[in-house]
Amino acid sequence: MFLNHFEYFAPKAPEETLELVGRLGSKAKILAGGTDLMVVMKAKAISPEYLIDINGVEEFKGIFCEEGKGAVIGTNTKLAEIQFSEAIKAKYPALAYAAGEVGSSQVRHMASLGGNTCNASPAAETPTPLVAMGAKVAVSSLSGDRELPLEEFILGVRKLDLAEGEMLTKFILPEPAQKSACRYAYMGRRDAMEIDCVNMAVNIELANDSETVMEVKLVMGSVYPRPLVSREVPALLIGQKLSDELIEKAAEAAQGEAKPIDDIRASAEYRREIVKVLARRLLKEAYAAAKGV
Amino acid sequence: MKQLIELDINNRVYEVAVDARDLLLDVIRKKVGLTGTKKGCGEGDCGACTVLIDGKPELACIKLAIACQGKKITTIEGLIQEGGALHPIQQAFVDYGAVQCGFCTPGMILSAKGLLDRNPHPTEYDIKHELSGNICRCTGYKKIIEAVEAAAQVWSKEGVK
Ligand SMILES: Cc1cc2nc3c(=O)[nH]c(=O)nc-3n(C[C@H](O)[C@H](O)[C@H](O)COP(=O)(O)OP(=O)(O)OC[C@H]3O[C@@H](n4cnc5c(N)ncnc54)[C@H](O)[C@@H]3O)c2cc1C
Ligand code: FES
Ligand code: FES
Prior knowledge:
The structure holds two protein chains of two kinds. By secondary structure, chain A is α+β, with helices and mostly antiparallel strands. Chain A is built from twelve helices and 14 strands.
């Protein structure tokens, strides 16, 4: 299992990286943790001519979390750092939890948050809660930066809104609203080292009465080519106080929206059942957490 | 095209000629000659190739050697104590019968060290969760978990490095 030949670059600064990304174009791949890239290169599924290793660039790493100001997370921040970050656990528990459920301890110490998104696998763990929280990404090139919502950045299986010469540089997370909560859950055959057969995140924001739903976002992973944001759940729940019947109706609506496929991990039919189970559970949990009970 | 790089493995600097595509696992085993680090799946799934890089468990089978310059690499050979004694985690694995064929053991012990360095008082859940990337086909895991729990006790008492 040898890798094909490639030329290796290890830039030390963002501008140097962007210059390489611009000059080498589609013949190059960015190497972050390599937990996806090395595996596909070993399988000879792809053979890039150049690798741009971004691990020497300090500016691409780190969690910047300020009271009242959301958070900024560098693309090459390792999932283990997010999993164990006290600031992320306090403010974005769904993200810390999802990061901690990726692969194994070794994978999490290598893998980056940006790599999890850029790999653009429908089963990826962290894009689901990030989309539910309304995260944006910053995409940079030599000619400047642009920001866009993460849900618009991931276009489909292995497809991103990323032009030649551009790379993802950071995630921008909004400050969670007062009286809001986000929760994440997944289902696979075993807990560890398993690619999810369905994952889901629910973010609920309540009105001042702490009971009426003001905003709700339900995002499903692994049931569509990219994270699927439910349209029907907000239509059913906004302006309502939640009851078991209403939650059941919303869970069925989410189930109707999911477009899962059969594959080696699960059948489409099973996945649709799981969507309902997770939706019911997460709506209850997030609602209770937003109420503060 | 080969180039000379320096790798700091177990506090000793090795100068090795590598190609950009050479994987850390192959360099450690074949060029440096430390064969304690095992090659299982070669795809990141089994944990047999686990080494510590700057103290954190990583998988040498999907890591480029050239990317490890300037980092501190620890393999199972590096856990040896003064006078050749076993490291407390190794001793606990022996005491609790957590080694059968031994193929998974170096990776298991390094993952356990990564865990205990960060969290010296792990719960059983913490141990299972953080060691889930190390697969053992022999022991059934119970004895491994007991060994790590026992090592944690020694850790708290003696503050081992
Ligand atoms: C054993 C094992 C278990 C796994 N389990 C899970 C799991 O449970 N859940 C899960 O979601 N994933 C899992 N994965 C997949 C993988 O670990 C994650 O997707 C990880 O987050 C990828 O991050 P990385 O830094 O290693 O990416 P890399 O492999 O370095 O990169 C992935 C891709 O993204 C590109 N890329 C990286 N950074 C950027 C950037 N800043 N801008 C543009 N392109 C970029 C790379 O060129 C490459 O194409 C597993 C992998 C392994 C080996
Ligand atoms: S040999 Fe590296 S994880 Fe199996
Ligand atoms: S002791 Fe044989 S694989 Fe673990």
